[in-house]
Amino acid sequence: MRIALFGKPFQAEKREQIKSILEEIARAGVEVLICSQYYAKLEQQALHTILSEYSLTEDNKFKADFALSIGGDGTLLNVARRVGNKGIPILGINTGRLGFLSATDYKETRAMMSELLAGEIVLENHKQLSLHSTDSQLPEYPYALNEIAVLKRDISAMLHIHASLNGEYLNDYQADGLIVATSTGSTAYALSVGGPILFPENPSIILAPVAPHSLTVRPIVLSDRSVIDLRVESRSQHFLVALDGRSYPLPGNAHLRIVSADFPILIVRRKSQSFVQTLRAKMMWGKDLRTT
Fold first, then answer.
1. Of 73, 176, 229, 244, which is the active-site residue?
2. pLDDT in tens, 113-156
3. Which residue from 148, 157, 141 is spatially nearest to 245, judged by alpha carbons?
4. CATH number 3.30.360.10 given to 2-126+264-283
5. How many CA atoms lie within 13 A of 101 on its CB side?
6. Residue range 169-189, pLDDT digits in tens
7. How would you class 159 by CB atoms within 10 Å of its CB: exposed for 0-12, middle for 13-18, buried for 19 or more?
8. pTM across the whole model
9. Of 41, 169, 185, 270, which is least surrounded by CB within 10 A?
10. CATH homologous superfamily of domain 129-260?
11. Would residue 59 show up in a list of annotated catalytic residues for this protein?
């Protein structure tokens, strides 16, 4: 079994967590391919010698049975971009904060590796979004696992977003922005603006405005077969489009089309984990947090 290893830069206080993860990977006896940028960080912390046998990858042209993301959800989103349409399942080991996608705690690495080798895992298909435009240059990787957000660039300049759904006029959004999110992204940016939480197996798309000028404008849930067309006007002449946090400036009056991508991202989940458990743990549901 070959595992491609990715991670984020980490502070010295995370060293022991990373060390324990690497020791369990070495103990599992799998073939390891390490992202060269992450290897440089391991070398700085004198952790590169834990894995006695490995090879390095400089770009996204790698082959592996699984991709292992060490960090938080942001790290896993970056790994998803590098995996792209290869169909390589991603396992997230959480050393970050919240961790909806990276739901496996670093202390569970030994059990996770054992289950991985035995094939005792669950593979979840996570829908992505795809961004298109006929009049603006888009990023090289126009896909998002969490959300595509149209946002104002300047503090004072509200956006005017003309939205159509499947060729039919939907609404004019006067707002700070508009978030188009997947079920995976329903617990991310969209949640912070009042969007609903969707379970991963729900392929729906969320349309959620950011600070709309009208109180009657609310988030809505759409079919995954929806075609969302946006024409964006900005008094500052430019606005931002963000794909999973990767922001790019676009000229005002640009036309955008957002649809479901033609390939999913595969996420590894332990059989003992469920999304309900993750919600309870991360959202602290079932706990009485009132003070007496």
1. 73
2. 999 999 999 999 999 999 999 888 898 999 999 999 999 988 77
3. 148
4. no
5. 30
6. 999 999 999 999 999 999 999
7. buried
8. 0.94
9. 169
10. Probable inorganic polyphosphate/atp-NAD kinase; domain 2 (2.60.200.30)
11. no
